[in-house]
Amino acid sequence: MTPEVILFPDSHRLADYLVKTWIHLANEVIGEHGRFSSAFPGGRSPVEFYNLLSSWPDFNLWSKVHIFQTDERFVDEHHPDNNFRLIKDNLLRHIPIPMENVFPVPSHVETVGMAAEEYKNTLVRFFTLDRNHLPIIDFVLLGLGEDGHTASLFPGVDGINDPYRLTMPVSINHLKHDRISMTLSVINNARNVMFLVTGAQKAEAVREVLERGGDYPAAQVRPRQGKLTFLLDAQAAQLLEHKERYLTQAQPLSINPE
Ligand code: 6PG
User: At 120, which CATH number?
Assistant: First the structure.
């Protein structure tokens, strides 16, 4: 399936578009299914989106939204590198979302393997999964690393595509922290997957994933039935050779997110 690629003049327009699109989708899915599950990453790229989204005070919406993490660093929840702390500081503490609707990766367990196992159980419980079944998450937001990783699925890591594995521990020497990640199987089972990529330092990885057919983990994100979208600012898109194939969203989105 061919991903939709949308180019934005800057990260502000991108974040504005994503907020309105996310809220519109949340209202649509809640109208159909009564709830909306959304998995968010850490890192720098989504912060502007989280801050913008945090000014959406609609309790009625937030009471039916359920937030998960695509991945986490295996550090204490108060550690500056903890992704849940980033999501909490920039979004969760500013919105009226019931805490029972928020599912952080556990950081209080002894090993990264136990954290991954506990998070798998969180997904099994919430999505009432039978054995060998995958959750269908309504919306997954992803970043892109310069090395082509996404979530905490890094090049060279085995098992990221294991068909029935929901989460996995990741321990790589060059990483500052061990990680816990949703697997590609879970991400590719989502209804909507959106990459949010900004900055010139990502331009090479963006071209590799979108136009060079690289086998980066990010290039293996191909939802089986869901929709895949890349949201790029001009800097991240600067090395793309076929921009004529992509949409350009220069103006703020005018949809009514309600
Ligand atoms: C993390 C993220 C990771 C991130 C990319 C891009 O735990 O760091 O989940 O996958 O999305 O590394 O990071 P930036 O957004 O900071 O460039």
Answer: 3.40.50.1360
Which is the closest atom of ligand 1 to the Cα of 153? 10
Q: What is the pLDDT along the chain (258 residues), one digit of tens a residue?
A: 789 999 999 999 999 999 999 999 999 999 999 999 999 999 999 999 999 999 987 878 999 999 999 999 999 999 999 999 999 999 999 999 999 999 999 999 999 999 999 999 999 999 999 999 999 999 999 999 999 999 999 999 999 989 999 999 999 999 999 999 999 999 999 999 999 999 999 999 999 999 998 789 999 999 999 999 999 999 999 999 988 888 887 666 655 555
| 74 occurs within a structural domain | yes
What is the atom index within ligand 1 of the atom nearest the CA of 152? 10
> 203 lies in a domain?
no
In a domain, 46, yes or no: yes
Instruction: Kindly report the pTM of this predicted structure.
Output: 0.96
27 close to 63: Cβ distance less than 8 angstroms: no
Q: Report how far ligand 1's centroid is from the alpha carbon of 45 (Å).
A: 7
**Containing structural domain, residue 120:** 10-195
Q: How many domains does the chain have?
A: 1
Ligand 1 pocket, residues with Cβ under 6 angstroms: 41-45, 70-71, 83, 143-145, 149-152
Cα–Cα distance list, 227 to 64, 189, 197 (Å):
22, 10, 17
Q: Are 150 and 141 in contact (CB under 8 A)?
A: no
3-state helix, strand, coil in the chain (%, to 5): 35, 20, 50
Atom of ligand 1 nearest to the CA of 179: 7
